[in-house]
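Hey, can you fold this one?
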Amino acid sequence: MNPAVTASLAVGVPSLLVAVISFLFASRARTQTAQAERDKVDAEAYARARESYEAALATLRSEIADARAEITDLREQNRDLRGK
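Sure. Predicted structure:
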């Protein structure tokens, strides 16, 4: 084998291995970064949905309390009318 070819291979093969390993690590890092971003977006969406759900529950609880108060008032009025 020609010494020039041997020297080229001695330098080229390790360089190629380093390039392949670097590519694999970069691909893995990119995948993990993308997953972390998706998790962040999912967490933010969950927080917004929870806020909306809790606001709706608070509104419904308020409406139920108002309806109960109105029912109590109507029962009292009904009792007063029957008593007369």
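The two ends are 122 Å apart (CA to CA). Let me know if you want another pass with a different chain boundary.
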